[in-house]
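Appendix C. Worked example: Mitochondrial integral membrane protein
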Amino acid sequence: MSLWGTTKKNDDEQENEGLNGQDDEMPSSRSQQSRSREPNERDRLLPSNPRPPHRDGYLDPDDPAVTPYNLWTVRALRFLTVMFLTINFIWWVLLLVSIFISPPGLHTRGSGFFDFSYTTLTAGILLTSLLFFSNPSLAMRVCQAILAGLLLIDIILIVSVGRIRNEEGPPGIASVVWATIMATWCVFCDRVVAWGKREEEERLTGRPETRRTLKEWLAVMIGTIIMGIYIVIPILMTCTLILRSRDATLEMDGERYGVDGNKYQVHLACLGDAKKDSEGNRFPTILLESGEDPLEYDFEHWAYGAYQNGTIDRYCYWDRPGYAWSDNAPSPHSAGMSADNLAEALAIAGEEGPWILVSAGYGSIVSRIFSARHFRDVTGIMLVDPLHEDLLHRIASPWRGFVIWGWGIISPLGVERIIGSIFSGITREDRVYGKRAYQNGKYIKAQLQENLVADSLTKSEVMSSRTIQAVDTPLVVVSSGIKVRTDKEWEAKQEDLTKVTGKLISWDVVNKAPHKVWSTLEGREVMEKRLGQLVKASKKAGVKVAEAGDVEGVVGQPKRE
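Step 2, the predicted output written as structure tokens:
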């Protein structure tokens, strides 16, 4: 008796139905018997005009009726696999949407690219299994088992490292667990189909088929190659998770504070002691805002130099959501939201003004919004080669957004990070906030968020802030000489930014400085000189800014350094 509860025909039945194959009435008699008996699970899949059986009563091995699909168990497994693929597709769509607009409950503090990648890999595994469902092979099962093992390692890494666990959150953990279960499911299905195929061959042809047709060999080869490629993906993702685990041990100055209802955390640090004058008034604290890169990379180094030189007494800096040690915010996320995050983090940390805002590039947009919303606490603004609101379209182009999204999708593979860490000596500092921070999925997500709303929500926020900006706030603008000479529109907009307030101290154009003005010695010296003037002006509250030091430059007329 077979495992499916069917019995083979005994010798007498074979003699009656098979050995009398020369009887002319045999086909008609078999047809009548087929019509008279109750149908079973195999009847609907048999062809309407099957090949006549051999004289021994068995079918030819190449007969279409010899298929594992004859078994209801195999058909049920295939149906469940299709159902799992449908569920996976729905989850895949939700994760794709959450990258651009975060539905409730689907926001992760990390980039969101890891869970999307795991779900995409799961879809590939299920599709491959369905394409070669009726051609099981040992090679496919081994590949699927290896995939399940690698994904299990990923689960252990994600769950055991607290920082990664918090960043990936429930959606990320659910995605990798689901991928592991589906890989294991495919191993089970392939094994059952192989058994069912052998069972049906033995029942219908008299023996298990040990040969494969050329078509079957091609199917096995193609399926194995595809699964081999799939194995490379979790290997790379596992290596990336190991690097992330290593990066999570990097110590940071300051603390992380939960903002926006504790949905995510941002990093804030301060250096120096708060001082007061004889009347108890607090001296200003410098509040730094980075441009397009994490602030710790080089901008904070310049501020630390000014602190050591005694130009400033204290400064604070933070990482916008997605940068360095800060979590990613839900999408969409605008510059105004970042300004509110900064204000909330400062309040939670117990930090008080007055503030002198020093910002660069895109960060100047955030600082200007912060200044307008907290103008009573801001006693000075310093803009370093700032981005004008009319030029936000440059970072909001659809093509740029598509490229950023593409880099984000492949970022979990971490090919460049892995190669750099093995062969180029790239350190944790480089990956978290340094020269390789752009490879980080969180950073890529932050850039994508800025791209999506730059020319809409962010532009509206900064234009509104300009109308409520306090006109008596001292202002310094330091521009890149290279940018000004090579981009006339940039030069015109730099001049317009000198009118953000009505109290311009100086507009300096550092001739040989690039967009990162502080990367040159001349740029650092000019920036520190102007910052010192703002500090003196703030300390002499009630004295005109013009008396605060050696003030150079006239509104609309840059001082060339």
